[in-house]
Design brief:
about 210 residues, mainly beta, 6-stranded antiparallel beta barrel, 6-stranded antiparallel barrel, 4 helices, about 40% strand
């Protein structure tokens, strides 16, 4: 489990195809300072498992489903990424509960800079739109953020906005985002559970969700 509070800006140093997956090497000296083989590190919101590490960084395998669901499919050497180690038991939950399981991706629709802050408007896949609410939590490229505005049911495309403070702009890759950039999205786990429970309520469409005719 993660909190969405980014600890380090890392960099992908190599990407090697492995059948339908990939093996990535990342420069991440802080993230590996207390890491061991098998530990979890979130890479721009994607939970990856350390398979090898040294004092400079670590190597992780990325399976096809992860590549299909996230921006890591287009990753190449030189790309900067947000890094967060798994939350230690008893640690502070500074952001919100983040699993590192990407729900999908969105595109930056608008960047509105202020004097020292910035607003990003990001598109939402239609199936994720009901899970994003004004003043709720969302992880964008692994960064825990508060939704400052969200589109209504009829908007096309669906969208949400987040307001980025100076610390977020400098400490994460979100300060580099421009219109058209693709970002990883993870919605609030509580909203996903409520949606699932409602689907199994009487008249909630459980048979349809389960694939029954």
């Amino acid at each position: 489990m993660f909190t969405g509070i980014i600890e380090e800006l890392g960099e992908i140093t190599s990407v090697t195809p492995t059948g339908d997956g990939a093996r990535m090497r990342l420069h991440a000296p802080l993230a590996v300072s207390d890491a061991a083989r098998g530990d979890s590190i979130a890479v721009s919101g994607v939970c990856l498992t350390v398979v090898d590490q040294d004092t400079d960084g670590f190597t992780a395998d990325v399976m096809k489903q992860t590549l299909d669901m996230s921006t890591l499919a287009a990753a190449s050497a030189g790309r900067r990424v947000n890094l967060e180690r798994a939350t230690a038991t008893g640690g502070r939950l500074g952001g919100h509960i983040v699993q590192g399981h990407i729900d999908g991706t969105g595109h930056v629709l608008e960047v509105r800079p202020g004097d020292r802050w910035c607003v990003l408007r990001v598109s939402l896949p239609r199936d994720l739109a009901p899970l994003v609410v004004d003043k709720g939590s969302i992880a964008v490229d692994g960064v825990s953020l508060t939704v400052s505005a969200a589109s209504g049911p009829g908007a096309e495309p669906a969208w949400f906005e987040v307001s980025l403070i100076p610390e977020t702009l400098t400490a994460t890759t979100l300060g580099e985002r421009v219109v058209g950039d693709r970002v990883n999205l993870e919605t609030d786990i509580l909203a996903r559970h409520v949606q699932r429970l409602l689907a199994f309520a009487p008249g909630g469409g459980a048979d349809t969700e389960a694939g029954a005719p």
